[in-house]
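Lab meeting minutes (informal)
Scribe: AK
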Amino acid sequence: MKRLASVPVGVARHRVSERQILKLIVIPLCLFALAAGCGYQFTGRGDAFPRDVRTVFVDPLVNRTKEVGVDREMTMALKTEINRKGLLRVVDRLEDADAILSGVIRTFDSRVVGVNRHDEALQYEFLLVIDLNLRRRAPDELLWRTQGARFTDLFAGSRAAVVTSSPESRALGYQASDLRRFTDVQLTETQKDEARGRLIETAAHDLHMRLLELF
């Protein structure tokens, strides 16, 4: 499966109509759902993964962004994902670990990627950039590293940008009548929180799969 390309940081805003922005939202969300559905289908650790590494200590990630708390959320998501898969066991004490997982969150921010003819934001994009590495505790040895891993998610900035028939809207239970109860500000904050959670969960899953395959 080919990976979906991330939108580069710094791309200029596009002035588009509401009809065009709806198309821009429906297609990415559908592709996002398809990507999440096919995902990585590894059945276990790759052949290259050391068989003697069974326990891992997850060092709290370093936060180089202005987003307060994202380091704790990402660290917890990685621990949860590793324990859920069950191929490695997370330990709380460094001395009990065969390997140490550590890293740095380089970027976590949002930007406007679509506006209407009045220059009102219709769509935002979250971007997460993270470095991770796995080291054997004793003797000290680098087992795996990924640098600049990028993850994105989209969220609406206006009720006009929500397509209730899209896969994500159906998954969240959004109906046209529900949207009328929201102001644009309330909707954007709700969508932002949901996108943040999805982004962190997806990144943790993807990074864990890469680690198991030493990819």
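Next up, CB showed the second protein from the same session:
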Amino acid sequence: MEDKYLKEIWSSPDHEIDGFLDINNQSFVLHIKKVKSRLKSLFLPKIIGIVLGLGWILFMFMLIYFSLLYTPMSLGKVFFISSVTMILLITGLGVFLYVKDIFTLKQIDMSENVMFTQRKLASLQLSIMNSVRVLWLQLPFYTTWYLNYELITHGSVLFRIIQILLTGLTTWLAIWLFTNTNYKGLHKKWVQNFMRGYGFYRISEAMDFINEIDNLKNDKYNAQ
């Protein structure tokens, strides 16, 4: 009965939830409102990210298509298509993870066992972290798409030095960020601040509230 009651609250629109406060289970209702608020705040950034990501993928695809269709084969074309293709693929993976996150959010059900719900939220956190990590990997390819035969063979010494430093630095930075943006690095302030912007800690807050709801259920059951 308690799970049915929680599911009824969870499935109710926000403007109807306050009606449950008239029942002697205010703590349940308030905690569920907090969980819904934390999770609901994740939807809009995800949707915006998907729309922008799909727009960027379409733009990259058009660049590749017109390059293949209208430009002659050359070393510059190889660099251009290879770089843009890698950016497209990495962005596509990021969009896929964003879509996956939305489906996970939709599947959260307060009538389920708290362990299952926590597991879904934990997988959502991992997905958010992976999407951030993966998107860093496209950095070096923004420094190679414009290279061509003339620049490589006849470019000045200064250009070559700058190009090597730029590509090398972005490659190192992408790998460093990819390897350091993980659960082990959450104690670092810069990782915490960065992940906070992606809603990582909103999920942590939702998990804490769900634990409190479970404790309230257990206390009520033990009191009976």
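CB comment: Residues 1-40 form one domain.
No objections, moving on.
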